[in-house]
Design goal:
Length: about 375
């Protein structure tokens, strides 16, 4: 940032010089306009003297103009000086205006230099990071080669590993897949280093996800706000260098509202469907409706729970007395689960309330996943 600070200092000094020159130009223009400031007084004194001479002539007396002549002489001197100063000011106006033009040209060049300095700073930082990035990628070669080699070596000798039926096994690890994925899909890592390390994300995938590799957590498109902290740091440094710009606010995940467990009372609500993703493509393979009805327990946001409770549609566990249900008349059991461990229906299973045709009310089931 030193180059930026240097140019900013030069711009600050140049702006101060321009401010001084512009002030001088205004005062010089005022001086140039003051050439005739004593002309009215001079004309007044001259008329007065003529009047005295005329009256003395009529009265056949000697005129007494000594005092007036002294005033007239003083004002004439001031008028002559004002004329001379005004002329000098008029001559100076062009000189000062030319100096301002030169300073403005220099300032414009400095502003261009500042833009170049900012660009150079960011490109240099980028290129330094690029070198580190390339070095780390080069270092991946040994690890990738070792994994691929283990797979190839296994294939080379797997005839020694055949079972009693003569079937030769496949390599039980990633092996050559790492090379294929790097060439065709990009960087991939085991699920424990991806977004699927979060059980709530992994819950959306088929159980076979453990056999697949995924984009690193930082690279996943669901990782909102990637590099935001770095952006904020760079912008802050540029501001501190003297380039005043808007600050940058990193992405912040919205705070999740507390969830409470409720029991529905003669009421039905429907949440976002549960989805199951294909670990190979990441696309939704199937989805299941989430419906809760009378007597079911579920987790919803506290604000919604309070609202529905005021309408006598839910009871809040831990606060309200739960009714004792007779086994013969008890509704279908719905597993009550914590939002961190959402209930998952198996593919193809049906919900006994799927045919409900009454009014459905949306609820916050964000804790169950998208």
């Amino acid at each position: 940032m030193k180059a930026i600070q240097k140019v900013v200092s030069q711009i600050t000094a140049k702006e101060a010089t321009l401010e001084r020159l512009r002030a001088e130009l205004e005062s010089t223009r005022a001086a140039a306009n003051g050439a005739d400031q004593f002309a009215p007084k001079l004309e007044e004194l001259r008329l007065e003297r003529r009047d005295i001479l005329a009256r003395a002539l009529i009265a056949k007396k000697a005129p007494n103009t000594a005092t007036l002549d002294a005033q007239l002489q003083s004002v004439e001197a001031q008028h002559a000086l004002a004329q001379e100063s005004a002329q000098a000011a008029r001559d100076a106006i062009d000189i000062i205006a030319n100096a301002i033009e030169i300073e403005e040209t220099d300032l414009e060049k400095l502003r261009g230099d500042l833009k170049s300095a900012i660009t150079t700073e960011l490109v240099d930082r980028h290129n330094a990071a690029q070198e580190r990035y390339a070095k780390i990628v080069d270092e991946l070669e040994e690890s990738a080669a070792e994994m691929a080699a283990c797979g190839r070596a296994f294939d080379h000798i797997r005839y020694l590993l055949r079972d009693e039926t003569g079937l030769m096994p496949s390599f039980p690890a990633h092996g050559l897949k790492v090379l294929d994925e790097l060439r065709n899909k990009g960087l991939r890592v085991p699920h424990g280093h991806s977004m699927l390390a979060d059980p709530r994300v992994a819950e959306e995938y088929m159980p076979s996800y453990v056999d697949h590799w995924f984009a690193p957590k930082w690279l996943d498109e669901r990782n909102l706000g990637f590099a935001d902290k770095h952006v904020a740091k760079i912008v802050d440094e540029i501001n501190k260098a003297g380039v005043h710009t808007y600050g940058f606010t990193p992405y912040q995940a919205p705070e999740e509202e507390p969830q409470v467990r409720v029991r529905l009372v003669k009421f039905t609500i429907q949440g976002a469907p549960r989805i199951t993703r294909d670990p190979e493509t990441g696309k939704v393979a199937w989805s299941e409706p989430v419906v809760f009805g009378d007597g079911d327990d579920c987790w919803i946001s506290e604000s919604l729970a309070r609202k529905l409770r005021s309408q006598f549609k839910v009871l809040i566990h831990g606060e309200d007395r739960m009714p004792v249900l007779q086994p013969a008349n008890a509704p279908a059991v719905v597993e009550a689960i914590h939002p961190d461990k959402p209930r998952r229906m198996t593919p193809g299973s049906s919900d006994p309330r799927a045919g409900y045709s009454g009014t459905f009310h949306s609820m916050d089931l964000s804790a169950y996943g998208d």
